[in-house]
Amino acid sequence: MGSTDDQVGHEPPGRRGEVNLQAIAGRAGVHVSTASRVLRQTEPARGWSAPAQRVIAAAAELGYRPNRLASSLRTRRSNTIGVVMPRLADTVIASICQAVESAARAAGYQLLLTTPPDEMGAQLEAVDFLLSRRVDGLIVSSLHLSSQIPRLTNLSVPIIATNRHPGDWLPAVVADDVEGGRLATEHLLALGHRRIGVVAGPRHASTAVERVAGFRLAHEQRDLPVDEALVVHTDFEVEGGVVGAHTLLSLADPPTAVFAVNDTAAIGVMGASRQRGLRVPEDLSIVGYNDIAVVAQLPTPLTTVHSPRATMGAVVVERLLAAIGGGAVDGAVLPVSLVVRSSTAAPAH
Q: What residues contact residue 139 under an 8 Å CB cut-off, 6+ apart?
């Protein structure tokens, strides 16, 4: 009959679990309570003691995995963050989601991700589902601008918005979209454009509304009026840019430049201008927003506003974890910057 160590070493993988705690203690030469304490704690500031090092080595050798359910029952936490992210196929949303997942994983948390339609009812249903799964906190990326939603203000766990915000009543980590819209418009005004069209996005999205507010602010700072016929609301997709551009370029006095409030719509504006035989930027200057990777590689690289998507994802996790730990839920407004490429130039006449 082999030794105890031999028996542990040949334990079938399917039997590994809590029984390994005794096996680990036996292999490390410590009491079971000592092994349990070591495996529950993070590394002490002064480093591990010799017995603790033996426990850690034995656990690694035996392929020990902690019982997360038992841990959650002790701490009343699931170490899970619920995330509501509509439009996950969108490059911007996907980038934020990737950053959220990376930051959460680094902090020892897992994500429970839902991707409902971009509708308030569907998003609220997703929140209810995540709460039923006992998440420790919630991140919502695409709430609509609206009056305060009571269902989201008295939750049992912290909640924070990102990418968009629904208004001042809920903390959010977002980019400075008013400043971004101002930078894009001021760039065109500085080039000499005075009729600037806006593919303005949907009215329910704070990103669209605030970028258009920045467009208006740039005109106001130069004491220039805004022709409301030049502000066209569409969706964020390529087709929205196509429709918006054709609407603007069909005006009796069409714009010499177009600011699209996201890069995807700006690509649609480029396509529509090409269909009309217009050259970019000789006949029409175009500015987008977000600086997604593809726009630098277009035949005419797109001037755009860079939004800090990776930083946004990391900061929203940091702020949520602070709240889960008992602190306040604090939002943040992150800086943006203008990236000038070949799609903008002075007007031809």
A: 81, 82, 83, 84, 100, 159, 160, 161, 162, 316, 317, 320
- With contact defined as beta carbons under 8 Å apart, do 189 and 182 qualify? no
d(CA 171, CA 250): 41
The residues facing 84 across adjacent strands are: 114, 140
Would you say 261 and 232 are in contact if contact means Cβ atoms under 8 Å apart? no
CB atoms within 10 A of CB 211: 29
- Reported as a single tens digit per residue, the pLDDT across 16-60 is 344 477 888 888 898 888 887 787 665 565 667 888 888 888 887
Minimal CA–CA distance to 341: which of 306, 304, 308? 304
CA distances from 49 to 20, 25, 35, 43, 161 (A): 21, 15, 12, 10, 43
Closest alpha carbon to 110 in 76, 83, 86, 141: 83
How far CA 329 is from CA of 72, 133, 173, in Å, comes to 22, 21, 10
Which of 250 and 48 is assigned the larger pLDDT? Answer: 250
Query: Dihedrals φ, ψ of 113, to 5°?
Result: -100, 135
| 3 state SS of 3 | coil
**Rounded distance between C-alpha atoms, residue 44 and residue 29, angstroms:** 21
Contact 91, 302 (CB under 8 A): no
204 close to 145: Cβ distance less than 8 angstroms: yes
Give per-residue pLDDT as tens, 77-127.
679 999 999 999 999 999 999 999 999 999 999 999 999 999 999 999 999
Residue entry with tokens 């039997």 = 15
Tokens describing residue 338: 């203008």
Which helix (H) or strand (E) is 7 found in, with range?
helix 4-9
